[in-house]
Amino acid sequence: MQEDLIYKLALKEADGIGGVLFRHLISYFGTAQNVLESPEGKLLKTPGIGPAIISGIKKARKGLAEAEKLLKDTEKRGYQIISFQDENYPQRFKGLYDAPPILFCSGVKDLNFTRTVGIVGTRKATDYGKEVTDKIVAELAEYGVTVISGLAYGIDLAAHKAALKHNLDTVAVLAGGLNHIYPAAHKKYVKDIVANGAIVSENKNDTVPVGPQFIARNRIIAALSDAVVIVESARRGGGLVTAEYGNNYHREVYAVPGSLDMPFSEGPNTLIRLNKAKIFTSTKNIIGDLDWSLDVVPVAKVAAQELDLSRFTDDESRVISLLRQRGEFQIDDLSFETNIPLNKLASLLLNLEFQDLIKAMPGKKFKLR
Question: If DSSP codes are grouped into helix, strand and coil, which group holds residue 210?
Answer without folding.
Answer: coil
